[in-house]
Amino acid sequence: MAPSESQLRGDVVEVGRRLYARGYTASNDGNISVRLDSSRLLVTPANVCKGFMNEAMMVVTDLDGQKITGERNASSEIQMHLEVYRQRPEVQAVVHAHPPIATAFAVAGIPLDRAVLAEVVTTLGSVPIAEYATPSTKELPDAVRKYVKAHDGMLLANHGALTLGTDLYSAYYKMETIEHFAHISFIARLLGGERLLSRDEVQRLQGLRGRYGIAAPAPICADPVESSQAESADCQVVFAPSSPSGERLVPERATSIRGDEEIRLTYRELTALIEDAVRNLK
Ligand SMILES: [Zn+2]
Fold this sequence. Notes:
The chain is an alpha+beta fold. About 35% of the residues lie in helices and about 10% in strands. The protein contains 8 helices and 8 strands, in the order αββββαβααβαββααα. The protein has helices at about 5-20, 80-85, 100-110, 120-125, 140-150, 170-190, 200-210, 265-280; strands at about 30-35, 40-45, 60, 65-70, 95, 130, 155, 160-165. Strands 4-3-2-1-5-8-7-6 form an 8-stranded mixed sheet, with helices on both faces. Helix 2 packs parallel to helix 5 (about 140-150). It is elongated. It binds zinc ion. Zinc ion (ZN) binds near residues 29, 98, 135, 159 and 160.
């Protein structure tokens, strides 16, 4: 049975409290929305700290973002939420926040798209970066549109992260997963870099989605090394080496998003490349 409006108001308050308590939002950042029925949304109000909301503060809007009831105005980022609901009819809830480590990846222009954690590969697949857009403008929904059909979570360049789900808590937990994944990736890179899962293992993990009833919006791209970010509209780019040796030969694509040709490698990646080249000469 679908939750009642009063239940959903309480859930939005609770999710806001958790976002703030975990440091995923500061001050009045972030916003949350959930479908009330086929034509109405419950949306967090603008200019309110998400850690200190109450049930009565929420705004009810239609699917064009027009206010139906509520004393306050809806979040200024509502256009981004509306775009998600337009593109993904099955999605019931959207969460936007600025979790610091995931946002640091978004600021550095580094997508979370390496095959590192089995659970992340199985559930989210990859976490791409939607191009930078000025917050609260129509540019932001345009940037999100490119990735939202194939992904339940994405980074927003120089801004934060966005997650969606078939209920409010599943959207919220994906935000936790992204920040946790970012945290682990960050530390693994400090320790010398991630050892990636193989392509075969990624395929096996994808096979588990059906078994565990995980409704991923799109499959993992068959050959992600060949696919570009532009093609990831209908599949999830997950970087994994074809050999099972735990290679780390993934070019750092930190600068590709800015459109230049520079490729950055870690010291180990560079050493491995040189060793490979020397082996091939023999
Ligand atoms: Zn934001």
